């Protein structure tokens, strides 16, 4: 039986505006361009895992608006099983994203259908017996996320959690997480430890291990990423040097790619390098799912870089 990566999370349409520089409070500026692009952290991670060769099921919801079918079709076109996607009355999730010339972004979320379903509506759509891992984020109702974590724990399915947008987590919840993947801002919110590089990331991640998490990956942008687990020495993988144009979905690409590599049984250092390469390619392109590379592209970058 082929093991699946199950993603329970958000599905959004991203309204992306490009600007020279972010506006100051009260300032009106002109956009350099506008695009409607499928996104949502859950959907992005599902697409990233599928394009890296994993068998993936997306569990979530779209609305009854004009975006809904486009969002489902884009997932399916990327090889994601969409049988776990509900349709809920109302608008689909919407993210308003502003991207400046350097590739940095500001994001405002309108939850819509992502916040409109309960665990009882999706529990039968999760293929627990086939799941290698379940990937979760923080763009759907928290009660659903926590219920999935608890059921995964009862069934012995590893939970991979990306706490974005960042939130404080109770120690009991941290004990339900197998793999926590987060950036410098998110780990500071959870642990109170300021992280500016690899040296800071290791002790901060250690706090999460002490709380019950099995392994932690801290993504550090152009400083690479750090893995810390209960067994073995910490692993630091440098970032690939690329010209970033849009960092939207970079973290989601990393998570989905790493999950796919893990599902294949790749050792941690190899899985991290693969994920770092996938993320590096993503930031060289505009959009969320539109920027996520296919497996052969990632493997070419790794080969060219001698990694």
Brief characterization of the structure:
The protein has 307 residues and is an alpha/beta fold.
Structure description:
The protein has 307 residues and is α/β, with parallel strands linked by helices. It is 34% helix and 24% strand. It is built from 10 helices and 13 strands. The protein has helices at residues 41-51, 68-77, 119-122, 142-155, 171-174, 184-191, 198-210, 250-263, 268-282, 295-304; strands spanning 4-8, 12-18, 33-39, 55-62, 81-87, 93-99, 105-110, 131-136, 159-161, 179-183, 215-219, 225-229, 235-237. The protein has a 9-stranded mixed sheet, sandwiched between helices. The longest helix has 15 residues, at 268-282. The radius of gyration is 18 Å and the shape is globular. The two termini are 31 Å apart. 48% of the residues are buried.
